[in-house]
Specification:
The complex is a heterodimer of chains A (473) and B (395). Chain A has 473 residues and is an alpha+beta fold. Chain A folds into three domains: 180 residues, Alpha-Beta Plaits; 161 residues, Sulfite Reductase Hemoprotein, domain 1, CATH 3.30.413; 74 residues, 2-Layer Sandwich (Alpha-Beta Plaits), CATH 3.30.70. Chain A contains 18 helices and 14 strands. In chain A, the strands form four sheets. Chain A has a five-stranded mixed β-sheet with strand order 6-7-8-13-14. In chain A, strands 1-2-5-4 form a four-stranded antiparallel β-sheet, with no helix packed on it. In chain A, strand 7, helix 11 and strand 8 form a beta-alpha-beta unit. In chain A, helix 5 runs antiparallel to helix 6 and helix 7 runs antiparallel to helix 8. Chain B is of the alpha+beta class and 395 residues long. Chain B has a five-stranded antiparallel β-sheet, with helices on one face. In chain B, helix 4 packs across helix 9 and helix 10 packs across helix 11. The chains are: A alpha+beta (473), B alpha+beta (395). Strand 3 of chain A pairs antiparallel with strand 5 of chain B, so a sheet runs across the interface.
Chain lengths: 473, 395
């Protein structure tokens, strides 16, 4: 193994773990499904069964039918949970309003997150979804799976829950959608004991970190995104499960500035892989692109005739820093002027590759609009080497930031808002780093500087009489 | 050891802390990598999109991995996941992957396996006719829409998610299966301003929005909410304490100050906002997260409100299509929607997309000045002539 887990991973075999027999799993025919009507009238939902895109309603209906045909003792929550969900959804369309109640604090002992309480406000009409709690299951980094694992999860969730899930929630977890309070602890125990699998985060916790596909299948990743994600998730389990923060806190790991997991828009702490040496050039491959032998941008534009590839127009002229050019028929890059935007590399992946002296840029404070408007992350650490176990990042960056935020952050204040409220200057102090022009798009245009006493020669305590000795009233 | 079938499984309700295992974290990723991924970790040299939805990555070892990307619903049942497992077992030695944008990726290590897999995937349809695993979502096209829970599970939505996404992806299906656009178009959807989908940096963002101030449930407010926290939750100080006629402590809302963010409802269940006619869809455009060529950008509000027309949102679908078609016809190769709008000027964006510009699109919140145009560099469009006409500047 190139990367080692923190503890030995129990091998999960579906044949050993399974609850349902093959017969139970294949308990309805296509014909039955065609004729199947759920117990509620759902014309608007059914309208969503047509059209080419995968229909979640069609999918839900097959689960509804599957549950109908399981024996009574082969599931622990109500059989018609899917039918009631569709029934309530139909009514929500009619009313133009949700029918889920606000809040409901449920969870598993000792954790302050991972379970979201949910109750229907139409419990008489839809008793099977009277409780409809969500559980967040911490996904493996970059969401690769084996069918053994997924099938086991499916059996567990169909037996003890609704059989409906999200693959995945926005933050990255596998989401179990809908079970009753009684089953929360049993599910948690099955996950831990049988599947060696923990819940993810919710509430004022570290939220489940996520990462891009990284070096597993991408030539551009500058860092081991999965390993960083795994290591920091494990190292900060306490912060993930037990709320101690003013509000939510997100880590996301992007392998390069293309930002496939959108860390720059979504994470309080965005880790973005980068390099500090030179872009690697294969001149022969550049010529092959110029000669039309290789499709630009990995063939991403193949659906339309954009004409012959023109390296000048499509690469050199679009370079935001104009640090590239052709000299004697050879592509040259002035690397010290390069801002690593990835465009040239994206267009000619076989010719150009990121450098090999790699690390991460760390940015802070992205969040959605609630409350003071949306923010993107602020470039703070231009480059930091990241080698496991990433102690330099834990000790010099993450922990000072958390200490500050826990000390100064107001209830429900995200880190980005605290940075705005107390200023970048305070952030520099917290991290013990000097200022750099890269932190801002431009210097301030107002001179309203909050000078500190110690920045100014002489003392601020001045005698008015002394002043008046020179200036009459 | 099999999964338990007893009602409470391994949990002993009398001794709830007994045998409790905590802080296990996620399982380790490496065991889920298929051999071709393990063997070539960090050795990938380049990739190519062979056709929409099908990628080949080539390693310095000479190995190749073929990836078939399929659209997936974020909402799926165990029946669907089991079918995914069947496919993974049949073609991919039991391995499968999901992407950040809710796509499903099947990987194989040879061209022959890829062809067989492709045929299998395209043959699988729901009984009602929709594809189960449409292949696409790569390159200069529209990939899957990331979205939030909506009426399926959320207590604060101003619209529904799964239905809108289904309707829009049906409409944009050719763009999902094609690569005819100037660059990729990322569409995202969030049911309310909480934006658990963080759609604020997408080429096209669809946002459920409330438009009526909260209704105050005086009967229970004081007993279920902390009044000072409710007051502090309002970013515009529209909420103040009051007493009802029968002497109950409650709050009152200054309607004209409300911007309908719903933060008060998040804090207090006695202040619901949702409304059949009030709730609407806001369309935003021009955002991105990639650093490519231009820095990441926020999406901008381009249509303030479209009706919540369930279940297929025809007005919203039309608006999205209109923007994409105008963009497809006019943008330069590699230009994202936001880059295009900035190059031609936002005034031209509205003209070319045939979207009326209304006062709602002009920022009047705290950082509004950042959006003022303080220059004589502008283009003449009908909207400009209308102003000139209104002041008697031209006939």
């Amino acid at each position: 193994m190139a990367f080692e887990p923190k503890e030995v991973q129990k091998e999960l075999k579906y044949e050993e773990l399974r609850i349902y027999s093959d017969e139970e799993l294949n308990n309805y025919t296509e014909e039955e499904l065609k004729d199947f009507k759920i117990k509620h009238d759902i014309p608007m939902c059914e309208d969503l069964e047509s059209g080419p895109w995968p229909s979640f309603v069609a999918d839900a209906k097959r689960e509804a039918l599957h549950r109908r045909k399981l024996a009574d003792d082969r599931m622990l929550i109500e059989r018609d949970v899917v039918e009631d969900l569709l029934g309530q959804l139909e009514l929500s369309f009619e009313h133009g309003e949700t029918h889920w109640k606000h809040g409901g604090i449920v969870g598993v002992f000792g954790y302050g997150g991972g379970v979201i309480g949910r109750y229907s406000d139409l419990q008489d009409q839809f008793p099977s979804i009277a409780h409809f709690h969500t559980m967040r299951v911490n996904q493996p980094a970059s969401k690769f799976y084996t069918s053994d694992y997924l099938r086991s999860i499916c059996d567990l969730w169909e037996y003890r829950g609704s059989g409906m899930m999200n693959m995945h929630g926005s933050t990255g977890d596998i989401i179990f959608l809908g079970t009753f309070t009684e089953q929360l602890e049993p599910i948690f125990f099955e996950l831990g004991h049988k599947l060696q699998q923990d819940l993810g985060g919710s509430g004022s916790n570290l939220r489940t970190p996520s990462c891009c596909i990284g070096k597993a299948r991408c030539e551009w990743s500058c860092i081991d995104t999965q390993d960083m994600c795994y290591e920091l998730t494990h190292y900060y389990q306490d912060e993930l499960h037990r709320p101690a923060f003013p509000y939510k806190f997100k880590f996301k790991f992007d392998g390069c500035p293309n930002c496939c997991v959108a860390s720059i828009a979504r994470a309080d702490m965005s880790y973005i892989g980068t390099w500090r040496d030179e872009i690697r050039i294969d001149h022969e491959a550049v010529r092959a692109y110029m000669g039309g032998e290789i499709a630009p941008n990995g063939g991403a534009h193949a659906g339309k005739d954009w004409g012959k590839f023109d390296v000048q127009k499509e690469v050199i002229d679009l370079c935001p820093t104009k640090c590239m050019g052709m000299e004697d028929g050879k592509l040259v890059i002035d690397n010290k002027e390069c801002t690593r935007c990835m465009h040239c590399i994206n267009v000619m992946p076989r010719a150009l590759r990121p450098g090999t002296d790699t690390g991460v840029s760390i940015l802070f404070g992205a969040k959605a609009p609630i409350l003071e408007g949306a923010q993107m992350s602020l470039l703070t650490i231009p480059f930091i080497k990241c080698d496991p176990p990433y102690d330099n990042i834990k000790e010099n960056v993450i922990e000072p930031i958390w200490d500050w935020w826990m000390e100064e952050g107001k209830n429900r204040e995200r880190l980005g808002e605290l940075i705005q409220r107390q200023g970048i200057k305070k952030l520099l102090e917290v991290l013990n780093i000097p200022p750099m022009p890269q932190m801002v798009r431009e210097p301030r245009s107002n001179p309203y500087i909050f000078w500190k006493k110690e920045d100014v020669p002489g003392d601020w305590d001045r005698d008015i009489n002394d002043y008046r000795s020179r200036h009459k009233r | 050891m099999a999964l338990s079938t007893e009602r409470l499984g391994l949990f002993n309700a009398d001794k709830p802390m007994e045998n409790r295992i905590t802080d296990l974290g996620p399982r380790h990723f490496w065991q889920y990598f298929p051999p071709v991924i393990q063997n070539n970790y960090g050795k990938w040299q380049y990739h190519e999109i062979l056709e929409p939805g099908i990628l080949v990555h080539v390693s310095e070892t000479g190995d190749k991995v073929f990836t078939l990307r399929c659209g997936g619903c974020r909402f799926m049942t165990v029946e669907h996941v089991r079918e995914i497992c069947d496919i993974a077992d049949k073609h991919c030695d039991g391995f499968v992957r999901f992407t950040t944008r809710n796509n499903i990726e099947f990987m194989v290590d040879s061209q022959d396996k890829m062809e067989a897999l492709k045929k299998d995937l395209m043959s699988r349809k729901h009984v009602s006719g929709s594809y189960k695993f449409p292949i696409g979502g790569t390159g200069a096209g529209v990939t899957n829409i990331i979205h939030t829970q909506g009426y399926i599970h959320c207590h604060t939505p101003a619209t529904d998610a799964s239905s809108m996404v289904k309707a829009i992806m049906d409409d944009l299906f050719d763009y999902f299966q094609g690569m005819t656009l100037p660059a990729q178009v990322r569409v995202s959807m969030a049911c309310c301003l909480n934006m658990c989908g963080a759609v604020h940096c997408s080429d096209i963002a669809l946002l459920g929005y409330h438009r009526k101030p909260p209704i105050v449930d005086n009967e229970v407010l004081d007993s279920v909410c902390e009044i000072p926290l409710v007051i502090a939750a309002c970013p515009t100080a529209a909420i103040s304490p009051t007493k009802t006629e029968d002497g109950k402590k409650s709050v009152k809302i200054k309607d004209e100050r409300c911007m309908f963010c719903g933060n008060c409802y998040t804090m207090c269940m006695a202040l619901p906002l949702s409304d059949l006619e009030g709730d609407c869809v806001t369309v935003m455009a021009g955002g991105k997260v990639s650093n490519r060529i231009s820095p990441p950008k926020f999406s901008k509000v381009v249509i303030a409100a479209l009706p919540n027309n369930f279940p297929r949102f025809p007005e919203t679908c039309d608006a999205v299509k209109k923007i994409i078609e105008a963009y497809a016809a006019d943008a330069n190769k590699y230009e994202r929607i936001g880059d295009w709008a900035e190059r031609i000027g936002w005034e031209k964006f509205f003209e070319k997309c045939d979207i009326p510009f209304t006062e709602h699109l002009i920022d009047d919140y705290r950082l509004q000045y950042d959006t003022y145009r303080t220059s004589t560099q502008f283009k003449f469009t009908e909207a400009a002539w209308n102003v000139s006409k209104a002041v008697g500047g031209i006939d």
